[in-house]
Design brief:
The protein is mainly alpha-helical. The protein is built from 7 helices and 3 strands; from the N terminus they run αααβααββαα.
């Protein structure tokens, strides 16, 4: 509740007092920016975890290098978690953290807005 009040206050603040570094909307959009981030996050919202190959099949136009790089970026931001299984054959699974799952309602609202206005 307190975070909602702070967010609303910063949106209603005077333009000269809200900088891009302190604006929560700007920081959120920066986090989601990039050609592939939103698509990867969308796919990760579809089921609890994905292997690398499954994500690659779900997003056929992305290169292995770009998928790896974007997943690492999202992992550094604390949005995606990477779990390595040391078995034969070894494999890695990616899933959303609690912070990443908290983005789901944002995507739902963006979808509603897109349906209504685009």
């Amino acid at each position: 509740m307190e975070q909602e009040i702070k967010a609303e206050a910063s949106l209603q603040g005077k333009p000269d007092t809200v900088s891009p570094d302190t604006c929560p909307v700007h920081r959120t959009l920066e986090t989601l920016s990039g050609k592939w981030r939103s698509r990867i996050l969308y796919e990760l919202c579809q089921k609890p975890s994905y292997r690398f190959g499954e994500l690659k099949k779900a997003i056929p136009k992305i290169t292995n290098t770009m998928l790896t790089s974007t997943l690492r970026d999202l992992e550094e931001l604390g949005i995606v978690t990477r779990k390595q299984f040391n078995e034969i054959p070894p494999h890695v699974e990616y899933s959303l953290t609690d912070k990443g799952r908290a983005l789901f309602p944002i995507f739902v609202e963006m979808a509603k807005w897109g349906e209504a206005y685009l």
